[in-house]
Amino acid sequence: MNPEIYLDANATSPVMEAAIAAASGALREGFGNPSSTHGTGLRARALLDDVRARARRVLGADSGRISFTSGATEGIQTAILSALCAVRDARERGEPTGQLLVYGATEHKAVPESLAHWNRLLGTGLELVKLPVDEHGQHRLDVLRELAPRAAMVCTMAANNETGAISDLDGIAAVLRETISPAYWMVDSVQALGKLPLTLSASAIDYAPFSGHKLYAPKGIGMLYVRDGAPYTPLMCGGGQEAGLRAGTENMAGVAALGAVLAALEEGSTFRSHDVLVAYRARLADALRAAMPDIVFNCAFDKSLPTTLNFSVPGLSSKELLNLFDAAGVRVSAGSACSSALAVPSYVLEAMQLPGWRTAAAVRMSFGPMADDAFIDAACGRIVLCGQALRHICADTGLVQMTHDGHVTWLVLDKTQRSCIVIDPVPALAERIDAFVRSHACDTLAILSTAGSAGWPPHCTTVMTAHGALDAIGLGARVLVRLPDAAGVSYLLGTCDPAGLLASAAVTHAFTGAAMSPLLPAVVGPQTILCSSRDTGRLPCTTLAARETMRAACAAQRELDRAALARLLADHPQARLVDVREPFEHAAGDTGFQGVQNVPLSRLAERLGSWLTEPAIPLVFFCRSGARSAKAVECMQRLGFASAWHLAGGIALSGGAGTDT
Questions:
Q1: DSSP 316
Q2: Is the pLDDT of residue 660 over 50?
């Protein structure tokens, strides 16, 4: 695998070489304190003043104040604190003020949370109001027109970090002007630097925070622009640095690095032009369409930054897409990096009123303005690889588990007859289920529920079981048998003998509701895999034998690092290495191991029975980060299989050919 393709620049960017050199120089030679009056301090002061002057030119801020901060979050806090203190002071003087804190519905979470925080601490008692956006992510100016006369502060952003949607700042300014709004106006300008023209002094913007690490500077450095005449209250007081705007000795290495980025912006040839970036985005979009023909882009390209693509693919969750790209060495994200780990639908896309499947399956691909033709070529090539890997979603399988919010859907497939039975379909998984069945070119024989007999086909066969004659559906060489009881229905999957008897030992799987039917012990064997409709964080699989000897997951440590894995394989050359990632992840990148079986966690139930018959052969599970493989080990331990381990940290952290988490 070639080096990684980093397409998550809206989250953070790599640090450009000139910025690294500038920071290094500041650490070596420019280490002085800018507040000191000796020569070393004066040289540091000169650097600080030079970068501030450069920032004024780049931002079009010949007037107003510019202070260096730790990043956009500090700038947002300072702006909101300043505005709310001014509102509180005006109220104490008996002057009229606005009553609303208006913020865009697609703002970064730092904005509404900061508004609520300072509103509570300062006791201003203002009402927080979301300003809605349209389907393109554009602020509803008609609603703003109604709110503006009563607004104390309005917070919008120059461009959205998830979708790249560019705000109509001129339109917002016009509404605030025409309504004679008393509101202070903050514009989160993080995604604008280097991508949109900025002339802050000529605008009505009161506060504009910036963050260096979004544009090739290191983390921990940012800027805050404050318009002349806008109120200001320091977030931090102390030694009077930054002309009293922000106490604390300045981060000179960060300032120097940011200065190098600003110099590149001023010089003009380091970053690609708008037209070139638009062409790059078009090439990436074409590669995505070729790899994933059903792809839907969630923000119109003519209304968004040319460096951002936000998309969804029917039938694939954002987690599955991220895992696919990550396995191929392509770094993308599911919206804001600050909240992507929460695995919830994108609030930005929900605010745009996009369909639920798109908000829950969205992926953001973003690149920086230093991208070049070679980088885009490599990215497109890797996207093609992802498209090829996606074909492995159709790998032969007999049993598939899909889970949503603790509810489990089971799909039983027969590859010879191209038929499928769906058990306990979860409504939220409908799109994925449909796409999966279509990808296998299957006909759906029945859609069943363990809560009742609805969906059972009228024309079926009958087989004999230990419980007597029961209705059954043929699935090639296997049958699915209905076992009703007073509380619901269980379904038995197995193979009949020539006389038409489904013996207990021949039942490979039984599908149950949240509670196991009291009839099951009479009709299934001790090693039949019991598949529940509920998942409480573990794999919803067990056996009667395991239930009888159920105990807490083995206390034995079942994690291996690379060295321990090598020792285990040397001692047990017959051990099985099992990649529990999805087939398309497995196909997208080299695992770094030899002789690997790919048995996805979602399809583990199909293999459990055969592994349990060979308890002397160790199993070593691995995945990207170790999360899925840990679940596989826990499942095997609950089934009484002692010789199961997993690779701690997955191939991401163990030095394999995998990816970072």
A1: B
A2: no
Angle of helix 604-612 relative to helix 627-638, nearest 10 degrees? 40
Instruction: Say if 354 falls within a structural domain.
Output: yes
Q: In this structure, what CATH number is given to the domain that contains residue 350?
A: 3.90.1150.10
Indicate whether 661 belongs to any domain: no
Domain boundary among 517, 548, 579: 548
**Residue 270 pLDDT more than 60?**
yes
Q: Based on the fold, state whether residues 286 and 428 are members of the same structural domain.
A: no
Instruction: Answer whether residue 512 is part of any domain.
Output: yes
Using CA atoms, how far apart are residues 156 and 606, in angstroms rounded to an integer?
Answer: 51
pLDDT digits 0-9 by tens, 510-558 = 999 988 889 999 999 998 999 999 886 667 888 888 766 554 444 455 8
Answer yes or no: 442 catalytic: no
Q: Identify residue 621 by its one-letter amino acid code.
A: F
Q: 226 and 193, same structural domain? A: yes
Residue ranges making up the domain that contains 244: 17-267
Paired tokens of 572: 């047990």
Classify burial at 441, counting beta carbons within 10 Å of its beta carbon; exposed 0-12, middle 13-18, buried 19 or more: exposed
**CATH number of the domain that 639 lies in?**
3.40.250.10
Instruction: Give the residue among 89, 146, 91, 102 at the shortest CA–CA distance from 128.
Output: 102
Beta strand extents in 485-618 (DSSP E only): 489-494, 507-512, 529-532, 541-542, 559-560, 576-579, 596-598
Distance CA 27, CA 585 (A): 43
Which pairs count as long-range contacts for 336-341, CB under 8 Å and 24+ apart, including other chains? 336/11, 336/108, 336/109, 336/161, 336/162, 337/8, 337/10, 337/11, 337/12, 338/108, 338/109, 338/110, 339/109
**CA torsion, ordered 421, 424, 427, 432, to nearest 10 deg:** -40
Q: Supply the pLDDT for residue 556.
A: 54
- Annotated catalytic residue, options 85, 155, 299, 338: 338
pLDDT at 33: 87
